[in-house]
Specification:
NTP_transferase_dom, Hexapep_transf_CS, 9 helices, Spore Coat Polysaccharide Biosynthesis Protein SpsA, Chain A, UDP N-Acetylglucosamine Acyltransferase, domain 1, glycogen metabolism, Glucose-1-phosphate adenylyltransferase, alpha/beta, 6-stranded parallel β-sheet
């Protein structure tokens, strides 16, 4: 029995603009919002939208991501028929190759999709923070009798040139596609989320693979080819929260927005649209009597004796007495020792900040500004000073670095 729709989740991105945070980690596996990883959002959207068959295409630094997804049980995707499947590049009779582009990645997994004989395929990105009901998107696609639909968001005109843009008529039918144009004709930015009729997608993937001059990319090749052939293409206007967290400032800002759900539009406390994640297995957190916590998210296993203001602390973080954490994202297992000051920064997993050390620098208006970043497993020595623009990497050869 075939599935109505299968999701293909592109999760192989290197996330090079996240620098130290993706030194040993694929971008979709980067922690977010206290208890999640970025990939939790598209996976949760799928199960909340009634999509129970998901292929996750991995490539760069896949180990943590593969281990985290496991059998899909946290997202109710451990199914006998369907469920979640991790799909790395693999060796075939004709040889093996890395995924050369987004379209080629789907092409290499045609046999996986055909196993479920779907009518539709939805292509998702594994590196965005977005809460979206894909069933509404699919209903739009059906009502328009479309062959291809893309989710779009209106962006400010002054920022439009940064995006791939869909130019549409009064019925939302796509008439032109502009890739980061100097002179935008539209402010409808592609979210990189597509729905195809499977027979159409397969046809264009095979034609694209046969073209030796193709970049094997949806934006640069597949979508222009669909337009060339006057296919029925429509833009679905999405009005919820969506953020590409591809840079350090945008990742920091999105985490800070979690602390203000009424104004930011991202509500992780919504019982009607839960974001699911793998349980840390840690005990509850503990806040000492002399500790101070203001407008912060404190998750499992944290031990707080110091001061935490407007920050997100992931599982197992310790803040010792006299330490200050402010406007910061502190990932799991990190220790902030006595007297240290950590402000306006992102600290990765299993970092130690020494006594009386200073990391980052606060801002008067809590703006994005310059965000200091410390990679996993780094030790910042007692009394050290790490400036607001600093990017501290792990010493890969030694497995940790003393600063």
């Amino acid at each position: 029995m075939g599935k109505e729709i299968v999701a293909m989740l592109l999760a192989g991105g290197q996330g090079s603009r996240l620098y130290a945070l993706t030194q040993k980690l694929a971008k979709p596996a980067v922690p977010f919002g206290g208890k999640y990883r970025i990939i939790d959002f598209p996976l949760s959207n799928c199960v909340n939208s009634g999509i129970d068959t998901v292929g996750v295409l991995t490539q760069y630094q896949p180990f943590v991501l593969n281990e985290y997804i496991g059998n899909g049980q946290p997202w109710d995707l451990d199914r006998l028929y369907g469920g979640v499947h991790v799909l790395p590049p693999y060796q075939r009779a004709s040889g093996s190759d890395w995924y050369k582009g987004t379209a080629n990645a789907i092409y290499q997994n045609i046999s996986f999709i055909e196993r479920y004989d779907p009518e539709y395929v939805i292509i998702l990105s594994g590196d965005q923070i977005c809460k979206q009901d894909y069933s509404e998107f699919l209903e739009f696609h059906k009502q328009k009798n479309a062959e291809f639909s893309v989710a779009v968001m209106e962006v400010p005109w002054e920022e439009a040139s940064r995006f791939g843009l869909m130019v549409t008529d009064e019925t939302d039918r796509i008439t032109e596609f502009q890739e980061k144009p100097k002179e935008p004709k539209s402010n409808l930015a592609s979210m990189g989320i597509y729905i195809f009729n499977w027979d159409i997608l397969k046809k264009y993937l095979e034609e694209d693979e046969a073209d030796p001059n193709s970049e094997n990319d949806f934006g640069n090749n597949i979508i222009p080819n669909l337009l060339r052939d006057h296919r029925k293409m429509y833009a679905f206007r999405f009005e919820g929260y969506w953020k590409d967290v591809g840079t350090i400032p945008s990742l920091w800002e999105a985490n800070m927005e979690v602390l203000d759900p009424e104004h930011s539009g991202i509500n992780l406390f919504d019982e009607n649209w839960k974001i699911y994640s793998r349980n840390s297995g840690m005990t509850g957190h503990h806040v000492a009597g002399n500790a101070v916590i203001q407008n912060s998210m404190i998750t499992d296993g944290c031990r707080i004796k110091g001061t935490v203001k407007h920050s997100i602390l992931f599982a197992g973080v310790e803040v010792e007495e006299g330490a200050l954490v402010e406007d910061a994202v502190i990932m799991g297992g990190t220790v902030i020792k006595r007297g240290a000051q950590v402000k306006h920064c992102i600290i990765a997993e299993d970092v130690t900040i020494g006594e009386n050390a200073i990391v980052g620098e606060g801002t008067e208006d809590n703006s994005v500004g310059d965000v200091a970043t410390i990679a996993s497993y780094v030790t910042i020595g007692d009394g050290a000073k790490i400036g607001p623009k600093a990017m501290v990497y792990e010493d890969v050869k030694e497995g940790g670095e003393q600063w």
